[in-house]
Amino acid sequence: MNDENDANEEPEQASPVRVLVVDDQRLIRDGIASLLSIRPGIEVVGTAVNGRDAVAKTLELGPDVVLMDVRMPETDGVEAVAVLRDRAPECRVVMLTTFDDEEYVVQALRAGAHGYLLKDLPAEELAHAVRLAHAGVTQLDSSVTRHLTAFLPRSGPAAEAPAVALSPRETDILRLVAHGHTNREIAARLYLSEGTVKNHVSRILNRLALRDRTQAALRARDLGLL
What is the pTM of this model? Predict the structure, then answer.
């Protein structure tokens, strides 16, 4: 498990992350662009007003990361993600929206989104999320993670035991990850250091052959831990 898969680790980067901001509301669109443009390591290369515009601007400007609203006129965010998955597969699209509806979450991730975040997060956390997306880390808002694990069906008729047995402590941590808790929150709940939790999470992902915390949440559901 590489450190880039841990959402608490700031990835190193040689050049600024090029970002396109997509939102049909001008005030929000310009506000997000302005907040990100003053953050180190980020370059806002443009904005778009809907999904159709987002596809055109992405193909024209070649951003590394697209922050995409979900509900927009003409072409919505989910439709745009599906198009970009085929036409600009190297671009990371993160949904940034006020809607945490289960159906939107599932549709966006199935369409190819690399994350689903809510607009109420602080500017510095959004900048951090952009850098992580560029590094290949899939991110979900904690409330979104809970919705997702509750909404998606289990992969089989019954929970399967993991190929490699987890310790009781690892099982507890996997359960908390599945409920959307950060490493810091898990550390506080289990009276551990944040570094210890991070190491446990890395071992869990490695032992269960999982890519990231989203897959861990779904695996926890398959194992009947939710």
Answer: 0.66
